[in-house]
Amino acid sequence: MTVPIDEVPGRTGPSATTEADARSVGTVRTEYSPAHDGDPDPGEIVWTWVPYEENDGRGKDRPVLVVARERGGTLLAVQLSSKDHDGDRDWVPIGVGPWDRSGRPSWVAVDRVLRVHDGGMRREACALDRMRFNLVVHRLRERYGWR
What we know:
By secondary structure, the chain is mostly beta strands. It is 10% helix and 33% strand. It contains 1 helix and 8 strands; from the N terminus they run ββββββββα.
């Protein structure tokens, strides 16, 4: 069953996924704490609407890695792609996992941080293992000065 585009979680309204200014979000605690309970947690890959960088209303339902929970209850996340970004410093390779049913290798973008709401995700895909999560977080800390 296809979900109508205007009903895709995270696309519109108060739970819409937006781009966060990663350098001015304040204190960021990147704590690995996945709990397979239907709620997005740092360390988990979830599906949400991700607006295109042009911010013109277009976007795509795609997997994102949750990296931190903010004080107001929102989450910071980074998008995944199965497009080959080998050698690109803005992308961290994380290999294959159950978030991609075709078993393709994936990369995580660290040049763009997204703000996701609990009600703005479509489904929980899986938890990324701590080692790969730490690789992504290390690159984010280097890039944005997070502690």
